[in-house]
Protein 1
Amino acid sequence: MANASSTDFVVNVDIPEVASVDASGDKGTPDNSAEKTAPGLLKPVVTVDQHLIGQYIVVEYDGLPYPGEVLDVDEEDLEVKVMHKIGKNRFFWPLLDDTLWYHKDKVVTILDGAPVRVTGRHWKINHDVWDQIEDILDL
């Protein structure tokens, strides 16, 4: 094996910011939305209207996520009957309904359906969706 001398050097490369492009193809401001919006499977509430009634969502209350069913809506608020937490991604319906009005900003995601039953009384959210909820709420 021949002796090879190595030379250390540093290469500086300028990486341009990525600009967002809207549907018309116009470039806008740099896209930093990944830091502030829900990733992948999470579906935030954009407009509050009657189509949300009966849907299952996850709301944030005191920094923790709670799944529930939308019972009613107002201009920017949703009345939600929420489940109670019993463990990591484990919830149950309380004997007495826990119903509160939440501003649409407190909705973490709209679920594709009801949580899934794991025991006679306990329910869970889709594992991939739950992982993203934990990430966005820093749990």
Protein 2
Amino acid sequence: MKFLIFFIFAISTALGQNYTCPNDFSLFQNVCFYVGNNGKVITWADARLHCQSLGKGIDLASIHNAFEQAYIASQSHAKDTWIGLYNEAGDWSWVDGSLLDYTDWVKNEPSGDDPCTRLDQSKNLLWNNNNCDGVYGLWPFDTSITQYACRTAATSS
């Protein structure tokens, strides 16, 4: 049922409108998203730099509703994925400066002092705060984060 609602909403927002995205980005709700995979561990800062290198106005993804969350999760192919939420001096903020108007944290998160945020593949891609170096867990079972989600505004044509 959730998928059907998601699908109907996605189709209804796209009909009758002409928007374009940069190459390799996908259009969703008049916003462009890209999920990149580095193939090896990537820090949150390097993921952000990679997004920014793709063009003006592109940054790590901010997520503003359950539909965007579901869309990015579907594009991540069930892998840990950096997003643009970070904690500075106790305040959670989006890197693009947009309003933190939606959250989808794993139960009892955020916790600790880890300032960066990922979609957690072991927790149904809900949000989990993490250290920013791209590795978490205990050796020899540690896990590397290799993916990141980028966002930019679509342009109307």
